[in-house]
Structures are given as C-alpha cells and as structure tokens.
C-alpha cells in the first residue's frame, strides 16, 4: 500500500494563486496573517506545509473561506499532471 501524502508543492501553488488573485505581495499577506514572510515563501515553494492554524490565518487575511482553498487543493490533486 502506498503512503498517502498531500503534495506540499501543490499546496503552495494554490496558496500563491489565491494571493496573486488578490493582488497581494508575500510581505503584505504575511503581515496580515501574522506569520513570517520567509515562512510564507517556504510554504509557497512547497518547502514547508502549513498547519491548519496557518492556513486559517492566510484565508482570513485574504478574505476567503478556508474551505475554498482546500477545495482548490483537492481540484488541483485531481487534475492530471
């Protein structure tokens, strides 16, 4: 049985996509979400996975529902590579 794991690069791409659609820089978003800019950058590059708390803070800062971000991640996982 293969190990099921969420692709951190995919997660980062989705978060970055939401951020760009809102016209926000990493600096602005990280400030509004009260996380470090380097931490956000690492998440967007897929080097770190956000905790639920961090995902929630990012969604609130971007004025989107966290569930919408998760749905976008699920949709991206279902698309062929």
Task: Identify the notable features of this structure and list them briefly.
81 residues; mainly alpha
Walk me through the topology.
Elements: H1 8-21, H2 26-33, H3 37-44, H4 52-62, H5 66-78
Helix pairs in contact: 1-5, 2-3, 2-4
**Helical content, roughly?**
55-70%
Shape: globular
The largest sheet is: none
Terminal-residue CA separation? 22 Å
Q: Total helix count? A: 5
How would you describe this structure to a colleague?
This protein has 81 residues and is mainly α. It contains 5 helices and no strands. The chain has helices at 8-21, 26-33, 37-44, 52-62, 66-78. The longest helix has 14 residues, at 8-21. The model has no long low-confidence stretch (mean pLDDT 94).
Outline of this structure?
By secondary structure, the chain is mainly α. 67% of the residues lie in helices and 0% in strands.
């Amino acid at each position: 049985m293969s190990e099921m794991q969420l692709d951190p690069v995919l997660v980062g791409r989705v978060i970055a996509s939401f951020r760009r659609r809102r016209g926000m820089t990493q600096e602005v978003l990280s400030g509004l979400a009260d996380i470090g800019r380097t931490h956000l950058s690492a998440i967007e590059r897929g080097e770190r996975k956000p905790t639920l708390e961090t995902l929630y803070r990012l969604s609130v800062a971007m004025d989107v529902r966290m569930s919408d971000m998760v749905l976008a991640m699920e949709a991206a996982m279902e698309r062929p590579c």
